[in-house]
Amino acid sequence: MANIEVKGLTKIYNKKIVLDDLNFTVKDGEFLSILGPSGCGKTTLLKILIGIEKCDKGSIHKGTRNITNVDPAKRGMGMVFQNYALFPNMTVLENVMYALKLKLKNKKNARERSLEMLKLVNMEEHINKYPHQLSGGQQQRVAIVRTLALKPDIILFDEPMSALDADNRLGLRKTIKELQKQFNTTMIYITHDQEEAFSMSDRVMVMKDGKIEQIDTPNKIYNHPANTYVKNFVTKHLRDKVSSIEKCTGIDL
Amino acid sequence: MKKRSYLNYFIFAFLAVTVFYPLAVMVSKVSWENFNSLVASNAFKDALSNSLFVTSISTIISIIIAYLLALTINRANIKHKTIIKVLITLPMLIPSISHGLGLINLFGNNGIISSHFNFNVIGPVGIIIGSIVYSFPVAFLMLDDGFNYIDNSMYYNAKILGMNKFQTFKNVTFCYMKKPIFSSIFAVFTMIFTDYGVPLAVGGTFITLPVFLYKEVIGLLDFSKGTMIGLFLLIPALVSFLFDTFSKDFAKNDGADDSEMKIENKYVRILLKTFMVIIILMLFVLIGSFVYYAFVDNPILNKTFSLSHLEYIIGDDFFAYFGNSIFISIFVSIIGTTIAYFTAYVTARRKSKLTKIVHILSISTLAVPGIVLGLSFTVAFKTSFIYNTFIILILVNIIHFFASPYLIAYNALQKVNENFEIVGKTFNISTFKIIKDVIIPCTKKTIREMFSYFFINSMITISAVSFLFSTNTMPVSLLINVYEDNLMLGEAAFVSLFILLCNVLMKFIMYLLNVIDRRRYKYGTNI
């Protein structure tokens, strides 16, 4: 039902090709990470998928429906941002209830559902706080359930953890995976962090200069990289770790 | 996509009709053959050199005072900064003509102080003092803001590098303060150069360029000559505008150190504080003189308490004029804030080539002095149905004061999270509803600031409206001029006090609303 099929997707900015003939599918309930250095076109791809930017060529299908030119609100997708985008003038509960109230047309049901959702991410104690009173990790949890509460078929994540510290990241990774299992939501996750992509995803898509270099399971990408670029990119964090150990210990690994 | 273009075109058209059309009409009606004879005339040469003379001296002193005050506030370990800032900026709440009036009360021919010493300040000295009082609070606000942008960790770096005090000033303080200092010099110069309130009140026979213009237009109805003089008044404003638009700004990084800095030498701190107290006391004396003149029957002959001045102005229909001003100011505030806010919304959050042009147009209103704007409206709309109505007064004030509130909103809206509208879109909530439910509540403080800026300035302005009022629409600030001309200083003082009170009340209401909000949102949301 929520299979995504992208065909020949191309985007050109000022005569520069930003996305070059992308073809891929995302299966229902799958967790796909899009991995690449900054400037490789992954955020542009996300914007086109959610519908806030138009592509120059190609099409996007959701199931059998062509959604290439469909309004963002009618795509059944939700989005989670790097800077949380929680409404600062509303409490945690009000943030989650805001869109739900309009969707369910019933304030009481919206409230109950919001409370349930907040409980899932252990935020029930904080429902009356304002976003600025929460830590980054807590804010992102609220932002995720705010999106999830509307039951989208697909959630897009735009580097949701790059503003968080290491401890918060580990916790949030677990939360996102658990929520995905529970709701069986398709998730497309943008990151430049190899470790994050490999530990969370069913499949990883490696991008460079607006092109797909490889799309496969973490295992296969790791063991059979399609080319030297992918090999270097996906093993970068390992090599970084090795060299820092070498520097600290003076032992040549 | 379409909606936002419409808004762009609407704003574009609005500014074109209200700013550029009147200016173009004004310039097109000038008979240029008289230009040479005007420039060669002694009256013009005198007025120009008088203006340059008093403006230069006042600007230098005004900036020095403002810089020292900003330094004191930021570097002398001061408590109760908010209240002190309010006191320092009190002169911004009364018309410029009142500053001249205050000086006459104190140092005029029979002033409270001068009558004991047999001297007076009528003439250039009076204009200089009045202009300083009128302009230094504006420079102070700009420089105080500049100090806030200094990354204080640079001072520690300077220390580590072994710089002496002069080197530190040159390489750190001046590096950050360059732009605010030059901006404030240009702004103050323009303010004083184009103001006719102070010189009209205390200038006596010493005629400055704006007074010359005013007399040509009001007295002799010579619009052509008035326009030619007006063009000269545009020059410094234009230079100031170009400087501000094209000079680079030092933006502070997020990680910058903004801890409290202190001048190490205790005696310098005490000196600065003393200076600040003296300035504030002088402002009190000036405002005190209004109270004295307003409530004393005759300040020279019988110094008894009396309400005769109040009775006189009430009999003179004071409250009708006061009502006019309140009516105009409220409409200017509501309409002006709305237009400026939505313009800023489009230019700050919907960037495109067209919005860049709209942005430049919006701030270009800064470059048109009130007296020139007023003149251009008179020439352009004399035969239209809005002439002699409240509409033209409201319109001219909106344009005259548009740039500052617009910029306040522009800066605030740029800081609001750029993803709110996208969140709305994915939630199936219209951008309009997101603006109403999220963006406006997040910028309430900014909106209040814009509202009170429009209100206060519309209450005190005389320059833009002086050619445009009719007997039914006359704003109360112009009454000061009328009373002063007739040597009714007590009455003029009363009017000034009423305006001051009204503006203080406006500030206080906004302050209270901000406090209530801060409590509600548990200290933090407002941008």
Written overview of the protein:
The complex is a heterodimer of chains A (253) and B (527). Helix content of chain A is 40%, strand content 24%. Chain A is built from 9 helices and 10 strands. Chain A has helices spanning 42-50, 92-104, 107-120, 136-148, 166-183, 194-200, 218-223, 228-234, 236-249; strands at residues 4-13, 16-26, 31-35, 57-62, 65-66, 77-80, 154-158, 186-191, 203-208, 211-216. In chain A, the strands form 2 sheets. In chain A, strands 6-7-8-3-9-10 form a 6-stranded mixed β-sheet, with helices on both faces. A 4-stranded antiparallel β-sheet of chain A has the order 2-1-4-5, covered by helices on one side. In chain A, α2 (92-104) runs parallel beside α4 (136-148) and α3 packs across α4. Chain A is globular and about 60 Å long. The model of chain A has no long low-confidence stretch (mean pLDDT 90). Chain B has 527 residues and is mostly helical. Chain B folds into 2 domains: 1-30 and 307-527, MetI-like fold; 40-251 and 278-296, MetI-like fold, CATH 1.10.3720.10. In chain B, 74% of the residues lie in helices and 0% in strands. Chain B has helices spanning 2-28, 35-40, 42-75, 81-88, 96-107, 114-117, 124-148, 153-160, 165-194, 197-202, 209-220, 223-246, 266-295, 308-315, 318-349, 353-364, 370-381, 390-400, 403-415, 420-426, 431-442, 444-460, 477-485, 489-520. The longest helix of chain B has 34 residues, at 42-75. Classes of the chains: A alpha/beta (253), B mainly alpha (527). The interface between A and B is medium-sized, with 28 and 18 residues.
Strand order of the largest sheet of chain A: 6-7-8-3-9-10
Low-confidence stretches of chain A: none
Helical residues, percent of chain A? 25-40%
Distance between the termini of chain B: 28 Å
Largest sheet of chain A: 6 strands, mixed
Shape of chain A: globular
Beginning-to-end CA distance, first to last residue of chain A: 49 Å
| Cα-atom radius of gyration of chain B | 24 Å
Helix content of chain B: over 70%
How many domains comprise the coordinates of chain B? 2
Order of helices and strands of chain B: HHHHHHHHHHHHHHHHHHHHHHHH
What is the count of DSSP helices of chain B, taking H or I runs of 4+ residues?
24
Most extensive interface, chain pair and sizes: A-B, 28 and 18 residues
